[in-house]
Design goal:
The protein is built from 14 helices and 17 strands. With 416 residues, it is α+β, with helices and mostly antiparallel strands. The chain folds into two domains: 303 residues, 2-Layer Sandwich (BirA Bifunctional Protein, domain 2); 88 residues, Anticodon-binding domain (Rossmann fold, 3-Layer(aba) Sandwich), CATH 3.40.50. Helix 1 packs antiparallel against helix 4 and helix 4 crosses helix 9.
Length: 416
């Protein structure tokens, strides 16, 4: 038996109902905040992702050469394609531009709980402004989405990558060596960060001070001892978050996201229900467009790991509402089959969801099937009722049934 490729999944009807339900929540929340949807190709020039993340990304890509000799790759994330689309087609539009997107991504890595080789990502960007207002807007929308999805236990942590960058630069670390050290600091791997810092001429005293800053977390009061403009910028972001009605997130100066294109505010959301690997959302302010041939434009964005959020919701016991068909039409005898099809067509044209028995089931089995597929009503088409232009309408939840004129069926079903 041929199986689906390792790290991928089939989504059967119940799965898809659940996924579409939560997708619609994300889309509705984005639109309420003035964001518009875009869609980019599933495959791109491989160079796009190398420019964004460096040559090491090639080890994780599903990369291939097409019949025209072009080096392409299935997208491993969606920020780079979104900014490439901005450079190609939106760079002359009035800014800031607010966009969102949803789609599947691909990474060749070891599958594990909540992580797959084919996974789904929701993201949003504000392109063309780097201000406390835009950072607050993005953090607020990320939190609104997490709450709208129904996740009960979560934590949002925000930092400013400029604080650690400035301390590293003051200690003698060059721009070339900084990304690797920041990646270690982001993961709190201080024993691995210290040799790299020592090689850059950082004193042990300065290193300990940097480690202490990386470990600094708490409320807004932790910014009191931080010198520089970055702390004041964060305070402004927090004030806008408060004004928009978002509870103050945790300040964590160790959140640096580990990517060298981030320029300022960075933030992450985590769900304890996922265990050790608990991050479900991450983002911040960055500059990418000039890498892809555009002018330098600052942006703020985030991405939500859709599969990981759904797993967290499942672990918390969340149940999404089941989709129900409005009506299931049953022909009581063979001589009324055509009329049954006529009625199901009429219901559908009136905007109702309607199904029909296609297996010539006996009445008892047809009713049982109508219940198993979650139909709200059964429409029983019988020859006696048809003489007066009526059918029997059965409420599948109460079992009550009554004769209804065919012309009144849509209004009767819609009214319950």
């Amino acid at each position: 038996m041929i199986q689906s490729p390792r790290g991928t999944r089939d989504f059967l009807p119940d799965d898809m109902e659940r996924r579409r339900f939560y997708e619609s929540i994300l889309r509705q929340t984005a639109r309420r905040s003035g964001f518009r949807e875009i869609q980019t190709p599933i495959f791109e020039e491989a160079e796009l992702f190398v420019l964004r993340s460096g040559p090491n990304i090639l080890k994780e890509l599903y990369a291939f050469r097409d019949k025209g000799g072009r080096d392409l790759a299935l997208r491993p994330e969606m920020t780079a394609p979104a900014i490439r689309a901005f450079v190609n087609g939106m760079s002359n539009e009035p800014k800031p531009i607010k966009i969102f997107y949803f789609g599947q991504c691909f990474r060749y890595e070891r599958p594990q709980s909540g992580r797959y080789r084919e996974f789904f990502q929701f993201g949003a960007e504000i392109i063309g402004a780097a201000t406390p207002e835009t950072d607050a807007e993005m953090i607020a929308m990320a939190i609104m989405m997490i709450e709208a999805l129904g996740l009960k236990d979560y934590k949002v942590r925000i930092g400013h990558i400029g604080i650690l960058r400035r301390k590293l630069a003051d200690a003698g670390v060059t721009a070339e060596k900084m990304p690797e050290i920041l990646q270690k600091l982001d993961k709190k791997l201080y024993s691995e960060a210290w040799p790299l810092m020592e090689d850059s001429g950082v004193s042990r005293e300065d290193a300990d001070s940097i480690f202490e800053t990386s470990d600094t977390a708490g409320g807004v009061e932790v910014l009191d001892g931080i010198a520089g403009d970055e702390a004041q910028y964060m305070i402004k972001v927090l004030s806008y978050l408060s004004a928009i009605g978002v509870a103050e997130p945790e300040i964590d100066l160790g959140v640096v996201r580990g990517l060298d294109y981030y320029t300022g505010i960075v933030f992450e959301a985590e769900a304890p229900a996922l265990g050790a690997e608990k991050q479900v959302c991450g983002g911040g302010s960055y500059a990418l467009s000039e890498l892809f041939g555009g002018e330098k434009v600052f942006s703020t964005g985030f991405a939500i790991g859709f599969d990981r959020v759904l797993l967290a919701l499942e672990n918390e016991g969340a149940v999404s509402p089941a989709e129900k068909t409005d009506a299931y039409v049953v022909a009581a005898s063979g001589d009324v089959k055509l009329k049954a099809f006529e009625i199901v067509g009429m219901l559908r044209r009136n905007g109702l969801s309607a199904d029909i028995d296609l297996a010539d089931r006996k009445m008892a089995k047809a009713m049982k099937h109508a219940s198993s597929v979650g139909s709200r009503f059964a429409v029983i088409v019988g020859s006696e009722e048809l003489k007066s232009g009526s059918v029997m309408l059965r409420d599948m939840s109460s079992g009550e049934q009554k004769a209804i004129k065919i012309a009144d069926l849509p209004a009767e079903i819609r009214g319950h």
